[in-house]
Design brief:
By secondary structure, this protein is α/β, with parallel strands linked by helices. 36% of the residues lie in helices and 18% in strands. It starts with a strand and ends with a strand.
Length: 571
């Protein structure tokens, strides 16, 4: 039977069991949208901007474990996906992004809204392809879904010229992909070598990255930790690899890591890392990270091993496969003395010191979330709000944290939370944002309203681009250049601190939320934190915004200065 490329596109989505499609129409994708009209079993979500759209698909993919799927038009529709492609790519999130394109006869002629999106994205995704022959369409789409989720997950871009969408061809969609699967199994010899090295350690340490969460190996990792009695530190993306209240869990490492975790990294004698790239936010000054330590590195991507930090033993395999292999063979280690040493560092400089304050401070906001929500998906935006969340949020098998870790994309939080709620409608979803990041995709409040999604949106408003302002305070003599969000043209040319005569904040988040049709609560007293969150928990009519007015110069500590080793923490 002969059908159009657009009809085959819809059939392909159905065969790949796509139930939610995040899509924004346009001239070069109009035939695809026409074919989707009335399509069974596919819910088409219309966000308010393509960047919000791809972040929503990202949140959906992280929440469900499925491939997130996008559809946009050519030109600006396609280029508006680029930030989201990089965001998902850095964090290994499986997405397939379809972009409309001008007819093949116009490619390269600078036609209206033509852009070579394949060339633009090939360095930030797993595969990018333009379909130039109708008979290749089915195989390309099937390959796209396979590549997105195979091995180390990632993003695939499929560019669909308008004439390919209209062309008639076979209705056949292959029953299975005849594509060779990559081997992600850990070699028994590699595992034995790693264990032999681990057994020689007096001060062993596990460093767990996002790869453990992506592999959904959390339960196995917790069992391994308990069996072998080795303490655990995590990257921001690895937080939740084991429950944060586990007695063997120390905390996050890196430039905002806890004192105990960073000190443990600097003093361990064998470091077993699983599923992390050792980027600069983790290691501090190059060449000083775990300098006198034997490092074992397991990662699904061989190219990530010894790229940033030279390691002694490499295991190129899937995190879950490695952890299960270790669990089968491992025996307990005597780490009591080492764990007591770590506990003394935790007592010396505790991250979660109880702070009494009449002001609304971030630690107490996060602690209230911990108390009130037993099950939830928490999506953090980027900035100080993200760092406080990753420091203080309690995570276990009932609570999960998503954030833009590798690319650090402001504006990620709200749309990703919307995508997570669409993927897991029975879960409580909380977005934690700063006032700056919230405004980058604030238009997606409309999406949450029209789809009647009861997402709880917590805005930590300090009136600044807080993370940069903190650096300016500590390292640049409080020269707050372009970071004050209350600034007016009439303000003094140089301002080093907020004061009573500062202008009011723009916008009024509560009035803006209400104008969209969402509910809004402002909190400026500590005693109102918990009641506001309780009210939000009970509100099920749609999104609710809680604006927490936090101190203007509240900082995230510890912090490691640029170019300094992890041991040089400012406390």
């Amino acid at each position: 039977m002969q059908i159009t490329g657009s009809s085959l596109f819809v059939k392909a989505l159905q065969k790949e069991q796509v139930d939610v499609l995040f899509a924004y129409p346009g001239g070069q994708a109009i035939h695809l949208f026409d074919a989707l009209y009335g399509a069974r079993d596919i819910q088409v979500i219309l966000p308010r901007h393509e960047q919000g759209l791809i972040h929503a698909a990202d949140g959906y993919a992280r929440a469900t474990g499925k491939v997130g799927v996008c559809l946009v038009t050519s030109g600006p529709g396609a280029t508006n996906l680029v930030t989201g492609i990089a965001t998902a790519g850095y964090d290994s999130v499986p997405l397939v992004c379809f972009t409309g394109q001008v007819p093949t006869s116009l490619l390269g002629d600078k036609a209206f809204q033509e852009v070579d999106i394949v060339s633009m994205t090939k360095r930030i995704c797993k595969w990018s392809v333009c379909v130039k022959r109708r008979e290749e369409l089915a195989a390309v789409i099937q390959k796209a879904f396979h590549i997105a989720k195979a091995g180390k997950p990632g993003v695939v871009v499929v560019d669909l010229p308008k004439d390919i969408q209209q062309a008639l061809g076979s209705d056949r969609y292959p029953a299975y992909a005849e594509i060779q699967k990559a081997n992600t199994t850990a070699s028994p010899r590699q595992v034995e070598t790693a264990l032999e090295k681990l057994y020689t350690a007096k001060k062993p340490l596990f460093l767990l990255g996002g790869g453990v969460n992506i592999a959904r190996a959390n339960l196995e990792m917790e069992r391994l930790t308990e069996k072998i009695r080795v303490p655990v530190v995590t990257t921001i993306m690895g937080k939740g690899a084991i429950p944060t209240d586990h007695p063997l869990y120390i905390g996050n490492i890196g430039i905002h890591g806890s004192f105990a975790a960073n000190t443990a990294i600097s003093n361990c004698d064998v470091l077993f890392s699983i599923g992390t790239r050792f980027n600069d936010r983790i290691t501090g000054k190059a060449g000083t990270f775990a300098k006198h330590t034997a490092i074992i590195h397991a990662d699904i991507a061989p190219s990530a091993i010894s790229r940033n930090v030279m390691v002694d033993i490499a295991i190129a395999a899937d995190a879950k496969d490695v952890i299960c292999a270790l669990l089968d063979r491992a025996k307990p280690l005597h780490t009591e003395k080492w764990r007591k040493q770590i506990a003394s560092w935790e007592q010396c400089h505790p991250l979660d010191a109880q702070l009494e304050s009449a002001q609304v401070i971030p630690q107490n906001i996060i602690r209230a979330i911990n108390r009130l929500f037993d099950e939830a998906i928490i999506v953090a935006d980027v900035g100080q709000n993200q760092l406080w969340t990753t420091q203080f949020l309690a995570i276990n098998k009932h609570k999960r944290l998503f954030t833009s870790g590798g690319f650090g994309t402001m504006g990620y939080g709200l749309p990703a939370a919307i995508g997570a709620k669409l993927g897991c409608p029975d879960k409580t979803v909380i977005a934690i944002c700063g006032d700056g990041g919230m405004q980058m995709n604030i238009q997606e409040l409309a999406t949450a309203v029209v789809y009647e999604l009861p997402v709880i949106i917590c805005i930590m408003n300090n009136g600044y681009l807080g993370n940069v302002r903190q650096w300016q305070e500590i390292f640049f003599g409080r020269r707050y250049a372009s970071t004050c969000l209350r600034w007016r043209k009439s303000c003094p040319p140089a301002c080093q601190a907020p004061h009573g005569s500062c202008p009011g904040y723009t916008p009024d988040f509560i009035k803006l939320a209400e104008s969209y049709g969402a509910a809004g609560i402002r909190v400026d007293r500590a005693e109102d934190i918990q009641p506001a969150l309780c009210a939000a928990k009970a509100w099920q009519k749609g999104p609710i915004v809680i604006e927490f007015i936090i101190p203007c110069e509240e900082n995230v500590y510890p912090i490691v200065a640029p170019g300094k080793p992890l041991g040089a923490m400012i406390l």
